[in-house]
Amino acid sequence: MxxxxxxxxxxxxxxxxxxxxxxxxxxLFAGDKTVFIRFQGCGLRCVWCDTxxxxxxxxxxxxMQTLGSGIGAQTVGFQDxxxxxxxxxxxxSEVKRFENATNICITGGEPLQQPKAFRALVRALSAHxxxxxxxxxxxxxxxDRRNPNIPHWVMDIKLPDSGMxxxxxxxxxxxxxxxxxxxxxxASREDFEAAVGxxxxxQDITAxxxxxxxxxxxxxxxxxxWETCQPSDxxxxxxxxxxxxxxxxxxxxxxKIIWGDIRGV
Length: 265
Ligand code: SF4
What we know:
- By secondary structure, the chain is an alpha/beta fold.
- The chain is 23% helix and 20% strand.
- The protein has helices at 7-10, 88-96, 115-127, 189-209, 231-239, 254-259; strands spanning 13-23, 33-39, 84-87, 103-107, 131-136, 152-156, 181-186, 219-224, 248-250.
- The longest helix is centred in the C-terminal third of the chain and has 21 residues, at 189-209.
């Protein structure tokens, strides 16, 4: 049973970028109806980042951010963006406006950069029965994997073309289970080869953590960088990957195929 959030948790402030309701574009739940809660603030600077307005942790308050009002609602443009802190209680209330939604994606920015707010929000949403998955950069140590309120992690490994390779915390890989996914956003053939190198080492990590059968191992997703990697090239590289990687999938940013490269969808 999910634990009920405390009053203090409900009043916890979250530096928030946007909330919107859309189709999950990638990963384990691609195609699912999902409410996205995007945290403000990220200490990384991925070259191909498509949410650069989420980088500053907190911008001056006092101006309202527009929250998404429906499927495909574009929330804010980069130029007029001002991050707005909301309490956990206010966020839950925003989420509940999307009456048909059962899935939540907590993303960023980097959600784990606000650990107290993150924990409080997860607990509050879980108490309302939402199915939650969390997207994280892989640059922060994952919280205790046994937390039943976080059923699914989607963790990036930053490949060299992102410029953030040194920020990976590879020890996080041993925290992932069959409910989770590793995501490689791939910009080039060199990136792809670096990813395969990580998978080779990952075999060592899992062996160190103890034998794991197929159900216990995380899914592995390759996504092409929209601007620099032809999906057909990535598909060809994946088809050549060693058969021992049996939980490998190719993803595409479905939301960009549907609506184009805009925000809030
Ligand atoms: S970790 Fe995510 S939000 Fe941060 S710079 Fe990279 S892509 Fe952008």
